[in-house]
């Protein structure tokens, strides 16, 4: 299988991609949603979400190991047949388009609330999409490289938590566990916006070069994200307390607002300068994978661009096709159309509250769709595998006789 | 074609950046202080100070604007109509509130606008003024031997809080205590006296209403019981003038640094019983010549100081209870440790019935270069 070099990534790069995607937008908005739901037990919910996500990652990895070099779209077609598979894939693509649009709108609303109150959303949307557009044109590898920026943000967060440490009241986190299990499980849907990042594994699996390490590094990304989410909730909860935190829509940013240092005075401004690229990391990753698979899908639907789609995925025999002027033009046109689609869908949402409500719905869909596909696909694959082995064994026995 | 598209895309941000949310530094008047008190028509009397930066003006000159309004934003809009510059609140250093206003109105609601708008600082001081903040700011703006009011007050408050004369309570700290069930806020208390502003202790709050005052020594002991006097780096009490009866009466000054706090809450017969243990390191800074190198003399002083501090702490705790101000956060511990009990009571009532025992140890660590 020929795969364009621009899209080839290592497992380590993939780990950073997932990690940055999960924490980019998620860490700034998820704690508020969780605390509103389960109060001071929010950290338990984050921890449990992380554990369940890791279990689902293992299921996905097992599924991908059975179907070597295939993504979820290929697996669905193989398992359910052409039409049912395409229907399921379309549903998943629709979800990805919706999620990318919501992420874009969420970023715009965050910018609106924090710094640019009067700049029109449309202008901010165009500005926010310039970088994802540019990077998507050059492939997944530059996006993964850009994701290394996450380490700068990690330093910033660790510094912020470190200076907050002496102000934390552990009593704000107590009493632990005074919540019913169903409520705790139900609250986990609020983390889905971030924790569904593990599903990137079956979207980019074909382009990972060292597939044997993919599971290990994906789990590392999940563990790191879980720790960061949990510690974020512990620190912000221990600092502000449950009742106040329920009113703060961006707790991590609010924590940065609390401190002042000599010369700079307000460190929230420095925090923002570093944080905005982090916000766009989530957008870049979702923008790319959605565009990538939509491009592939349209290749099947519209044969005229099929060759181009194959070139993108690496199925084209002409290795240099991606650098061909004709292909580049098609790619740019497709990227522009895709960007217009994402902006148009994001415009349906009215404001931040509308975004949060829509996230609740899409996350319910996302959780059902992703966990359902992972579990059912694995069961069918295992059954088919077992049946295949049995037939092979019978055939071998017949041949011996 | 591709290059043209990319160039076009890259030009867009240059063309449109800053069109809508542009703020020109030179045209902004930075509000540094806000004074709030009740106006005659039951609204707010708000006083703003903003630095005057122009040729021929002194460095510490400030523009002082006094307006009335129903809410803070209303007052700011009126002030904007009086100022040559566009007044912005992003650099507020202190919020001064009159004690009368704090006793009758909700500070938490009054300053809500500063918490809602992220361009406003939430780490500014909230200070209760005995008397009128407007008068104080007017006097401060006329002081010729002091820096600009905001700088002078910032230095005064920082130094006083480092010495635990006043609590280090910023706007966000006030709200954290206000929102936390079982904790009440305390705020710095100052007053204008002639040509000086003096830090005189703390204003006690029950919820968001001011209910009482304590002096600087009681503030230090309250902070010690809260576990927050640790912030004080050195001698953190106004000198303790004790007269130990060692045959030679002499006033003594001791620097005290709290090094350990342990707080234990139990429920006995449906009533919370609190045991607070405090350990101080003492540094004798002024006493009499002779004897301090002897362990027995030091032990006597330590016992004397411990007893005296215990009595002062008891009195301070009683004052806090009388005013319904749970600054120590006993209710928060009860909520965390005895959640069922917490749910079964009204903490405001239970707090007044709570038994608070304070046990103190003092350890004289140093006595200078003479014995």
Kindly summarize this structure in a few lines.
The complex is a heterodimer of chains A (about 400) and B (about 375). Chain A is an all-alpha fold.
Can you characterise this structure?
The complex is a heterodimer of chains A (401) and B (371). Chain A is mainly alpha-helical. Chain A has a single domain (5-396), classed as Amino acid/polyamine transporter I, CATH 1.20.1740. Helix content of chain A is 76%, strand content 1%. Chain A is built from 18 helices and two strands. Chain A has a two-stranded antiparallel ribbon. The radius of gyration of chain A is 22 Å and the shape is globular. Chain B has 371 residues and is α/β, with parallel strands linked by helices. Chain B has two domains: 25-214, no CATH class; 216-371, GMP Synthetase, Chain A, domain 3 (2-Layer Sandwich), CATH 3.30.300.210. Chain B is built from 13 helices and 13 strands. In chain B, the strands form three sheets. An eight-stranded mixed β-sheet of chain B has the order 4-3-2-6-7-8-9-10. Chain B has a three-stranded mixed β-sheet with strand order 11-12-13. In chain B, a hairpin with a 2-residue loop joins strand 8 (186-193) and strand 9. In chain B, helix 9 packs across helix 10.
List descriptors.
heterodimer; A: 401 residues; mainly alpha; Amino acid/polyamine transporter I; B: 371 residues; alpha/beta; GMP Synthetase, Chain A, domain 3; eight-stranded mixed β-sheet; 13 helices; 36% helix; globular
